[in-house]
Structures are given as C-alpha cells and as structure tokens.
Design brief:
The protein is of the alpha/beta class and about 210 residues long. The protein has a single domain, classed as 3-Layer(aba) Sandwich (Glutaredoxin). It is about 55% helix and about 10% strand. The chain has eight helices and five strands. A hairpin with a 6-residue loop joins strand 4 and strand 5. Helix 3 crosses helix 5 and helix 5 crosses helix 7.
C-alpha cells in the first residue's frame, strides 16, 4: 500500500512538472509572438561599426574630385598625381574622355575604409577598393606602399572607364556591360593596371598551364 501511494505521488508530481513545462513554453512562445518585429530587426545587418567621424575635404584636379581628411594631406597629393597619370593613359587606350569630374573617396587605411557609409554591407580584408557602377565613383584606402596604392587606383579607374563608356552613347548600357564575363571585366582592369610583364601574373599563368586549368 505504501509503495502504491509513493508511486501515485511520483506520477502526480511528474504530471504537474510536465504541465508546468508545457505552460512555460507556451507562455514564452506567446511572448515572442507579440514582440514587435522591429525590436529585433533594428539590429539586423549591423555588422559595420563606425568608430570615427571623418572631416572630409575635397581636392579638385582636372578630372577628379578627391575626398580626403586631414590625416591624408601629404599622401593625397601623390594620389592625385597617380589618378591624373592613369586618366591620361586610359583616355588614350579607350579613346574616351569623362564628360565631368569623377569622385574618388580616399581613406587613410583599410580599417577606416571598412567604416565607410558610402557602401552597404560588410567590407572584407581582401577588398582593396570599389567602383560604383551607377554613381561611377571610386572608394578605396591608401595601401601599405605607393606601388600598391597606384595599382589599386589604376585597377579601379579602369572600372570607372568601363562604366562610363557603357553609359555613353557608344556603349550598350550597364545591362550590356553585365553580359560580359567577369574574367574579361576584371582581367582588363588588372592587365591595364599591372602591365604585361608582372612576375606574379606570370607565375599564376604558368601554374594554370601546368595544371591544365586555363
């Protein structure tokens, strides 16, 4: 009889605990259901943290409006010369001139570049610069060396010419440009900014030929 009563009490307690768990889960579900979606959505996608406020100034050249801040004052003059040198070279190559000056937004380093609010989404460590197709502006950081800065700027300005030509009368529009393969778009930018004789490019090509991966 005593065993029976103990067993009955144990079963009753288990049933009560089960009911309490179900009720608690149900209440939690109800609470989550009635919370406004904006309460959680307001944090969605916030993976870009801005630590600094940049006091931008504009250096105007013949073909570019270069946006920079005081920390870059010395380097921006060199970047301006690089940009104009690339422009003259690409204008001859493409036989095309910009109809108006193009903006270049220049950051002092990559951590500053990653904070930019001119681009949506997260910017990875491997992104050296971006050229926007619609606004036709270049956003990039100064690199660790002048050679790297010159290379990235030249690469992005090839894209600026590609987009500008596509939007001109003789171009097929951005939709036509989008039909071209990525290897052609990026390959042209890299070839024209690095040149024909580049040891790293030669190494990659040799490796691809040996692996029959061209």
């Amino acid at each position: 009889m005593r065993r029976y009563m103990l067993g009955k009490m144990l079963l009753s307690k288990m049933a009560f605990d089960r009911t309490r768990v179900i009720w608690t889960l149900g209440l939690a579900t109800l609470v989550l259901a009635i919370i406004p979606p904006t309460a959680s959505a307001q944090y969605f996608g916030r993976n870009k943290v801005q630590f600094d406020d940049f006091d931008f100034e504009i250096l105007r050249t013949d073909h570019f409006d270069i946006h920079y801040y005081p920390e870059e004052t010395e380097a921006v003059l060199d970047a301006a010369r690089m940009g104009e040198r690339w422009y003259e070279r690409f204008a001859r190559t493409f036989q095309h001139e910009f109809e108006r000056t193009k903006p270049i937004i220049l950051y002092a380093d990559h951590p500053d570049f990653q904070q930019t609010n001119t681009l949506s989404g997260f910017i990875g460590e491997g992104t050296g610069g971006v050229t926007e197709s619609l606004k036709n502006r270049v956003i990039m950081p100064l690199a660790g060396s002048y050679w790297d800065t010159d290379h990235v700027l030249g690469h992005e300005l090839v894209h600026a010419f590609q987009y500008n030509i596509a939007q001109s009368r003789r171009g097929g529009g951005l939709q036509g440009l989008s039909t071209l393969p990525l290897w052609l778009i990026e390959g042209m930018a890299e070839y024209l900014s690095v040149g024909r004789d580049d040891p790293l490019t030669a190494m990659w090509i040799r490796d691809a030929i040996r692996r029959d991966d061209l």
